[in-house]
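Interim report to the steering committee. The following record documents the input for TIR domain-containing protein (464 residues).
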Amino acid sequence: MPSFDCFLSHNSKDKPAVRALKLALEGQGVRCWLDEEQLRPGLPWQSLLEQGIKGAASVAVCVAADGIGPWEDEEMRGALTLAVRDGRPVIPVVLPGAPVQPELPLFLANRTWVDLRGGLDGEDLARLVWGITGRPPASGTGAAPTTAPADGLAADPPPLPSDSVFLDEVFELLYSYPTLILLAQKDRELNGSLAALHERSKEVCGSERALRLAPPQGPEATEAEFFATLGRRAGMQPPPQDAGAFESRLEDRLAAGERLFLLVSGLDSCSEAGRSRLAACLRGLSDFHGEALRVVLVGGEGLAGLKYAQGDLSFLSHAEPRHWPEWNTGDLMDQARHCTPPLDLSAEDALAILTASGGHPRLILDALRLRAKGRPLPECTQALERSSQIEAQFSAIAQDPDQRRDLKEWLARSDLGAFRTWIGNPGLRRLYWLNLLRAEGPAGQERLVWRCPAVVGAGLRVLA
């Protein structure tokens, strides 16, 4: 039996992005071989690399901002030799920061690749886990497969207490607003709330009429691929091949007297053209069937752009927006009780973690993971300053010289200006939706600030 599930082959210049990928895969129960953790000083590293490849059930060839490195090229050729002999997967993986059209070596051209430029989570991460382990994603959900608890964290925890209250508000609002937009910064919806929202909609509308949809991830999907995927997840056979056919199928059900509930997520990493066509379809259906159709759209920057960037001309100008709530100490204490073993976190300790993380969900879970391993609280909060996930996000941004210059200026400031529902500066807008910035202050007077000192520290390390 292989010692590792996956060997991470990469350019050493892309280390922050690869560390973040390793953390994401470990969160799915995947054991990863990474050179900096396995190469013992003082020993010939070439032979240790060969042992690592031979001891892994698959190889992920990572392509990020700096492309394929010379030793990575050697690793790939060795991995492909083993793949031919043993039938093991060799998976090209495009990471955040990679160019729009990454150059893959010819001998990888016939292998299905996974595009993670949209983020290290969701459907694309589930596809990578599938390639590594052979476990396909749960059908029709667009979500990663459920795995056993990893590193002390529950694999599928229930919604947070504040999320349960938020979902109550969502269903109350649907009596008044046929279409709702739930805006969430990155990582905010990783706690099972979408599954709970779908289950509740099935209780209200019935299983056949409560549809959970997610488009194909990645910007390259054609209109046919985009709407065929949505159609299959809506139970349409044969799947529609364009926006008009997709809208027509839903129109037929509504005209026949059915009441439908559509929960649509995954709108940030999909085709921009497909996202816009979908918004137009939903607007048309809502205008004619507002009493029978309820739509909840969940997303971040891409969805916010559909709502706000074009003002009154937007296809979603009729939709009522709501922002997903921030974590509070009660949420953190509840999450701790679902760790393995369960943690009885005091309100004071929860507040310390919340303050150190700035409420960033990924950093909160990192702290709880360490606490579940028995680490003292000060060590847990200090470890947040070394987050490879946050470093990878900054690294992707800093590839552009102009953005790198802006980052250097912004990291030196504590106040980045007034918060707006649609932030005018594209760079600041990206940082906000990546959850590196937050809004602080009384309603109507909020200011944009860095999420926490750990985030600032990660940015400064990348720029150093």
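The chain has three domains: 6-133, 178-323, 389-463. The committee is asked to note this result when reviewing the revised timeline.
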